[in-house]
Amino acid sequence: MDVLDKYKKAWNNQPNDSEKVSKVDIYKMMKSKSSSIVKWILIISILEFLIPHVVFLFVDYDEYNKIYSDLGLGELAFYGFIITYIISAFFIYKFYCSYKNISTTLDTKSLMDKILKTRKTVKTYFIVNLSLFSIYTTIFSIVSLYDKLKPASSYKVFIFIISLIIVLSVSILLFWLFYQLLYGFLLRKLYGNYKDLAKLDEISQ
Amino acid sequence: MQKSLEDKFLNDFETNQNIVHKICRIYTTNQSDHNDLFQEITIQVWKNYSKFRGDAKFSTWMYRVALNTAISLYRKSTRSVKTQDFSDLEFKIKSVEYDDTEEQQLKSLYKAIQVLNDIEKALVFLYLEGKHYKEISETLGISEGNARVKMNRAKDKLKKILNP
């Protein structure tokens, strides 16, 4: 007799009614709000999308456009906005598809796979936004300071470029760390479990 | 329509809630987390209930949703396994009519399962529930052969914990 058989017997004979939840309480629970990882990923990605747009609500567009026009960047700003919105619309569609496909009725590995793919979409969206931010900031800084730097020595130009690189790198690093912390906190356990299931498949392939 | 679906769900879920309690017991270490996970599983089962076609037994379908919630969607981890207080667990499985020896064995078994990782817990749980390798592999999304290998390792680990 296997040592586990006696434990299995005890398992099968365990009382079923020691903590029975009533129908009324089950009803209350089924109507309550979920706190699952997927819900939090969804909330964070919506916030990531909304926050920059909410910030724009407080910006005076005429003044904003004037700054760009004065610098001769009116067209660039216009196309920049169009590109940003096309990218955002594409990612909103991707988020929608990802969340629609996540279902607890899938097998465990597929479910984890889909959650991690969704996280990857959020990550790509974040990287694209960060890249656009870096490109726009670089162009804006160079163009707005071009006239002031023109008569300056090459040493000053060098200092300006180095400062720009440092400021951009630090901003990107801070954003990146914040992102890792946020999603690392949410997905550490899931990622560990996923690796545990995936590892076995890799070994046998 | 919605009312009858809710009634049907309540009947099905109430009858099979012991499955959910067992899963909560192995994936949480205190009563508060147990209740949280129980609630999250209730929400997930209800959310997907309209997709349940009835071609499988409700309990079979519920194993998958409940385990998926515990492994993939539930955030609170059982980091403090070594320092946890098992008094909650002992309280939960206490029953007047229950055989003393079996009660002790059950306590030891739950304690030992708590030490396993999340995937091993699922495998051992499905084994204890008498599920076949086919169903286990379909639930977890791995091949039957892999399920066997993984199960043997999990069982060996469990035996070592139970009989060091």
Could you name the key traits of this structure?
heterodimer, A: 205 residues, mainly alpha, 7 helices, 83% helix, elongated, B: mainly alpha
Description:
The complex is a heterodimer of chains A (205) and B (164). Chain A is mainly alpha-helical and 205 residues long. Chain A has helices at 3-12, 23-30, 37-57, 61-70, 74-101, 108-149, 154-204. The longest helix of chain A has 51 residues, at 154-204. The mean pLDDT of chain A is 81. Chain B is an all-alpha fold and 164 residues long. Chain B has helices at residues 2-27, 31-48, 58-73, 87-93, 100-115, 118-128, 133-140, 144-162. The longest helix of chain B is centred in the first third of the chain and has 26 residues, at 2-27. Residues 78-87 of chain B have low confidence and may be disordered.
pLDDT < 50 runs, ≥5 residues of chain A: none
What's the pLDDT, averaged over the residues of chain A?
A: 81
What share of the residues of chain A lie within helices? over 70%
The mean pLDDT of chain B is 85
Helix-strand pattern of chain A: HHHHHHH
The helical percent of chain B reads over 70%
Number of helices, counting only DSSP H or I runs of 4 residues or more of chain B: 8
